Amino acid sequence: MNKKLIALLLFAAPLIMNAQAAFDALNMSQTELRGTSRFMAMGGAYTAVGGDISSMNQNPGGIGIYRNSDLAATISLDFNSSKADGMNKLSNTRFNFNNVGYVGALKLDGDILKNFNWGFSYNRNQDFHRHYTGGWNGINSSITNYVAGLTTAGGWTESDLHATGSSDPYWNSNAPWISVLGFDSYWINPNQSAPGSFQGLMGAGTTGYAEYEIDEKGHADEYGVTLAGNCANIVYWGFGFGFFDLDYDGYMYYGESLNNAYVPNNENAEHIVNGRANYGLVNYLDTKGTGYNFKLGVIVKPVNEFRLGFAFHTPTYYDMRDLYSTISDYEYLPDNEAAFSDGAHCGDTWNEYHYRISTPWRFMGGIAGVIGKSAIVSADYEYTGYNTMRVKYDNGDEDISTTNDINDYFRAAHKISVGAEFKVSPNFALRAGYSYQTSPVNKEYEDGVANVNTVSTNPSYEFNRTTQYITAGFGYKYKSFYLDMAYVHQNRKSTFNSFPTVTYSDGTDFNNMADIDTNKDRVSLTLGFRF
Known about the structure:
Strand order of the largest sheet: 1-2-3-7-8-9-10-14-15-17-18-19-20-23
Radius of gyration: 27 Å
Mean pLDDT: 87
Low-confidence stretches: 1-19, 344-348
Oligomer: single chain
Number of helices: 9
């Protein structure tokens, strides 16, 4: 078996899409509780409240409530930390320019149309920064066995996986790249006792440990234009256009160290012998995207003490550009044999791939009660149909396999938010809120019972289980100026899977899964002027 170690120039063909693209689409589609300090302090329960710059990003009908113009900007200091099972917490501090917006109000005083308003806003919807590490001692499954099973089940042969003459299997074979990479790195080798199949490095008597590191950076920003109006001081309507800018950088490492492993005795891999194996896989991903969406919203106020609000957001239609590269390093030390080590490297060369994503559509409904001139109490419900996401090739054709994955893996997520504001005096108000969002992943995949199919060179995937916010803040108003501050605590519980489940011949399933606990504590300041 004469194999040539070649450069990997990845993410350049439709083979890479499928399941990994499904979870990438999920990651790029989620939002955080961000906006003005008043909006955040009330837990984002603003669908029926309105009258705030952040209304443009949630319910555009909310700016129909304005009678005067408003200009405001929000900054924040974020204290982020992430911790995997049994590992040390990794922390970082981030300064964010969260929000800036302007609302113009034109008084018409007609019998029906009382006001016509417009607004412009910038909002940071998501901050991707997160860093965590972890590992497992005494692992019962190996990424090499997963790749061996995937390759055998696909019916791929040695000729599909290694270079012959000038033939490059990464480009000239239909075999999954993870299979080609595993074969290139000696993770998988022909099973001598079962011709036509492959075996990984873990077998009876193999012991070892695994480690991983995830380092994410980037953001998703929205620039909005909103038009709104006031009909008879009862119905406040609005519609908006959002333009999005997304920038994500990810570093993903996974490695294993095995004793009594089933390793090749040399680079010709003529025999499989017991020995030690050390190997690691690094994936780099640089994603940039631009997109747009539309929003419709209305607030109905039949009496001054009670309001109903509804809003609908279309999917965000993204044009995406990915740069992707992979490095696999390995070292094998067969018993009583000379050690050999090398790797399949991408070097400094990145390859480019273009595709399209449409995020889920969102529906929001809310109620709010106004108690005299001293208090507001509000509650929101939000439905996000994550199973409606779609991935398309650059030419606009739908990637059917990824669509099927999305329908299998994901479900709608539900978010409940409540908020309250109490005016201690005409110039000073206290606020508090709470928000809780359910998992967007179907139960069988969330629990690791059903298997995820991956065809990329990064078989790991991660998803949120639950996200909750606890918020508080205050506001002070002096003539036309106002100052709002908020404290936001976000807790996100997620699951990291190093690779899909491995099923052994006796029917036993193993999967290296870890619970990730991410906390963000934010202090924000909004300065505004109404005129």
